[in-house]
Amino acid sequence: MATFKAWVIDRVADGQRLAFRDFDEADLMDGDVTVRITHSTLNYKDGLALTGRAPIVRRFPMIPGIDFAGIVETSQHPDYAPGQPVLLTGWGVGETHLGAYAEKARVPGDWLVPLPEGLSPEHAMAIGTAGFTAMLALMALEHHGLRPEAGPAVVTGASGGVGSIAVALLARAGWHVVAATGRPGEAAYLRGLGAAEILDRTELSGSAKPLAKERWAAGIDAVGSTTLANLLAMTRADGAIAACGLAQGMDLPASVAPSILRGVSLLGINSVTTPIAKRRAAWARLARDLDAGPLAAMTTRVGLAEVGNLAEAILAGEIRGRVVVEMA
Ligand code: NDP
């Protein structure tokens, strides 16, 4: 019997139980590509799944972990051959399909992205779902017609995973970046990533007026709730906010005033089911535009055996930047 090491969530009478244990390869789910995982990451959603704080896991037993990079071991898919480096984010991996906190995964090849030229598996997971989402948000703002000449861009949850990469990507693209954070001690870190201004997030977290003084033309929001409502109320005419997260809350106590009086748009970002052509385009641009220096500055590394213990920390907003999980 072939086994590999994995974090496994089982259902128990009073909820779920998490264990780091051997997993039988024969119990992997259907898929035409088997991947030897070399790296994964820790995302906010992983924290929710590992703790059971939100109903992320929809099948038991579940191997959590929503993204991975690795090497194809066996393949019946025409696009993939043994030895090829690949990455995967989303598609319900770690939620409905056995996931990434393991030495092995079997998945439909249509979910994979070939590792782009210039990216190592480790770099790909330093970016991970968080960085991919930040890139989708930047692409959405650009698709809306927004350019740095329009005015500043605000990023919320700036010290977190999505936020850190959003700051770096926006700055690299020429934007004047306003980084909103609850951690004033991370100001130097955020300026190092390219932030031009630091904003105390409490300025954005109170209840929002329908309209407020115009402060930015664009934004990437990882936080939701009253923060997103304030961002919209403070956005310049014809600007837009790309909303991807709910670290503060899932509610949106906003008014239609910014939309109907200033033409402000709310752009929704969903990284889970992004079509494959857009995935490849986003990853190619991440490989090209995310400089190694900022990425290294925001990345810490942990072994597979440690990741299960970091769930509470990411939910508490205590993790800075990105965490890469190393399998070996
Ligand atoms: P992180 O925990 O790394 O970052 C979240 C950041 O939000 C924290 O670091 C903190 O930043 C800020 N924050 C935390 N709690 C609060 C609060 N109560 N009020 C205001 N700000 C808060 O998570 P990720 O970057 O991995 O994910 C960010 C969000 O994006 C999550 O909600 C996640 O689910 C979502 N997401 C959505 C995706 C999609 O496809 N739509 C894909 C990926 C992520 P600081 O200390 O700097 O203020």
TrEMBL record:
Stretch forming the signal peptide: none
A Pfam family it matches: ADH_zinc_N
Gene Ontology molecular function, alphabetical: acryloyl-CoA reductase (NADPH) activity
Superkingdom of the organism of origin: Bacteria
SMART domains from the UniProt entry: PKS_ER
Stretches assigned to the Enoyl reductase (ER) domain: 15-325
PANTHER family: ACRYLYL-COA REDUCTASE ACUI-RELATED, SHORT-CHAIN DEHYDROGENASE/REDUCTASE
NCBIfam families: oxido_YhdH (TIGR02823)
Protein's UniProt name: Oxidoreductase
Origin species: Methylobacterium soli
Higher taxonomy: Bacteria, Pseudomonadati, Pseudomonadota, Alphaproteobacteria, Hyphomicrobiales
